[in-house]
């Protein structure tokens, strides 16, 4: 099958076409009586290949289009969308949005973000790296990854290797005259393996996710990593119920930061369904903790010069010296709270958690195990037992019991529980072993104490 990569020389033309379409629809919406209007249009292209036991399981080519329109008649709002960019479908979408707005109740918080906040500078953030891989090449790469993992003694089966290529073009425009164009690529490779012994079967995996395929970890290294993780789980046992220090591996530590973001996001706050309501300006973490949003990181997983409303993004502290510096708001939630937008419509951009500890030192992963001393290293979480209204946290977990700073044996079938308020306040250290595969950039996080429930 042929290479479906969207050629970089065509991407700018596609963006111009989307921008022209968006501006034309906004003009037509104004002509139909809308006082304000905004359009989000996108084209996503991808290739996904899965290989298992050396054979091709699935091959999927995608080219998805999206077009969403929101109109405001005063403070009455109507939204409609389509995946078809032909003129009749666009007109039907416009008619539908206007009809909805005319019959919707007024909402005092409705409307575009203030015109004075629109982005005016659009630096190249190094997000566009098309990967010229075709189906045959993706299959070969998947087979190489799987072969590397299956070559390890003790690996008995495979859940398969995956290779994904993705390109995204998007335009946001509104009746302030703002037009923002974005193009980005995101590619991934992964492998899931199975090992077994007399105690039973164990499964684990590894993956890599990058903007630029040239920065992937080596195929053999990924296969080796997946196999090592899987084999390390053999002989897992449960634990008796206890309280102990808990170390979250970097790929799980970012989830803890994500719970903080959820709790300080506008929707949860104006509905008063967060345990951190009215906490701006108050301590929520130890006084050495720093978390900064950095939207303009070159090559970042969530970099962008503007948010989903066209508001310019900028570096901004979220937690400063342990104090919650601000909330995470778009213009709607900001108006509901009587505050100003923080440029976070559509989500957060590249949160950086500064490595450190109460003693001022930062540690790599080995150093974090030493800090843990004797306690639990968590490498997998199961279930959705997190309540951001109350802060209650209870999730199934597996990982390793650590004694005197060294891994002693794997553990499974346990539950870890605490309250997020206590967990955040009880952070002992943040490692320098940062996982770059996410928009939340953090190393491992050590907590002073959680309840571990097992046998």
Notes on the protein architecture:
- With 455 residues, the chain is of the alpha+beta class.
- The chain has two domains: 8-232, 2-Layer Sandwich (PmbA/TldD fold); 242-453, no CATH class.
- Helix content is 24%, strand content 36%.
- The protein has helices at residues 8-31, 87-102, 135-150, 219-232, 250-263, 266-270, 331-337, 365-372, 420-425; strands spanning 36-52, 55-73, 76-82, 155-174, 179-197, 200-210, 242-248, 290-293, 316-320, 323-324, 351-353, 356-357, 375-382, 392-403, 406-419, 427-430, 440-441, 445-453.
- The chain has a six-stranded antiparallel sheet. The chain has a five-stranded mixed barrel with strand order 7-13-14-15-18. A five-stranded mixed sheet has the order 10-9-8-11-17, covered by helices on one side.
- β14 (392-403) and β15 (406-419) form a beta hairpin.
- The protein is globular.
- The protein starts with 7 loop residues before the first helix and ends with a strand.
